[in-house]
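Re: that chain you flagged

S.,

Sorry for the slow reply, it's been a week of failed gels. I finally had a moment to sit down with the sequence you sent. For the record, here it is as I used it:
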Amino acid sequence: MLTKVYGSAVFGVEATTITVEVNVDNGIGYHLVGLPDNAIKESNYRIAAALQNNSYKIPGKKIIINMSPADLRKEGSAYDVTLAIGILIASGQISGIHVGDYIIMGELSLDGSLQPIKGALPIAIKAREEGFKGFILPVQNAKEAAIVNDLEVYGIDHISQIIDFFDKEIPLEATHIDTRKEFYESLENPEFDFADVKGQETIKRCMEIAAAGGHNIILIGPPGSGKTMLAKRLPSILPPMTLSEALETTKIHSVVGRVKSGSGLMSQRPFRSPHHTISDVALVGGGSYPQPGEISMSHNGVLFLDELPEFKRTVLEVMRQPLEDREVTISRSKFTVTYPSSFMLVASMNPSPSGYFNDPDSPMSSSPAEMQRYLGKVSGPLLDRIDIHIEVTPVPFEKLSEERRGEPSKIIRERVTKARKIQTDRFKDNEKVHYNAQMGVKQIRTYCKLSEESLNLLKSAMERLNLSARAYDRILKVSRTIADLEGELTILPHHISEAIQYRSLDRDGWLG
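Prediction finished late last night. Pasting the structure tokens below so you have them in one place:
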């Protein structure tokens, strides 16, 4: 007897429906074809034990299972339940008249209970697109898949529930969530708040500008000056995610299996902080079976690289193209996948190998040659993609001991959101540009026109401070953001002068 059961495979951030054809005939043997990986090939042991422990069995006949399309590589243990239900129906142990109306996915334990899967959200989206009535999957992934409207999602604990559903027509309880209600309820509860930061008013202002214009930023300062603490609070002042951004972000995390168990749509912007020993593949994505890397995991959020010069140079260089194009394309001989990677880069570094620079009270010091070698680990092309460089100094005791709390993130976020709205209206006719940091030469010439006074100020600063040529466009972008924060239509001289302060590494004597 031949039967068809439906599962799904995820490539990139999109799903492809897999038809599992099970044929049980006279003879002996178990043949699984259709390019399954080792995890799928081993499934017959898990299926046999799970069925036997629930009073069913794999029949002692010739079983041929084809996973179609047969030329597409399938991977993972999420097909266990799909195969098990197909075998039971094809061998006549249960009936399954309506099995073709559902996508069925899940990993089996030996007692028949279900383990969570990866990629539940893109699978659910594809199931709705192709007109399936419902999606049966482990209960841990149910809320994640239930984000999708017009699709019945059934969260299951045990394979016996699925068997009873098809054989005895015992109804399953569908998972329903109010996506919009849950999304908006969790928007205003950031884990970290700028109100907890003592002092550092200049750095807070710098962070506000970076958030308002989507600018990449690097913090330079000695150990203990608060670089990491400030970076962790940046997502709390970024504009709230829209529903479409939240859906796109959740899809990426779903593919990697990083959506928290029992949670639905992600409402907080991601903050990723990989260790400096990370490989280039782990950062940008890839592998034998391509998976999103850290830069895609930080899509619509923040990627924080602590101690930037400690990262391998090859790792930093592979970021150059994604920073420019805001997506990563991974090519293999038989297929190509593209992952979105529109993120804000926040980096931190010590000013020298010892961590201290021009500090007479420091316990250690570094020679000029050691400093040049250390700072030279960060290439010019990478720095060219970082708009703001700011020096962070240690907070004095008087500020640390103050009882007064700082300005909360909620107030700063309101100003940032207002500035972002101005930019959204400005670039509404351009699909590739949404905020100031994404401006190209054409947009800079159009929207960053300077008065004679502002132009003379910029010229004087570049000559006097020996600023590099690459600093010119960056200063114009940042000054445009400062003007947007103040609601000014034109860039004024004090906007230019403030933006000039945020180019520390371009000054003569830093990087040669």
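What I noticed first: The chain has three domains: 2-167, 191-396, 430-512.

Talk soon,
D.
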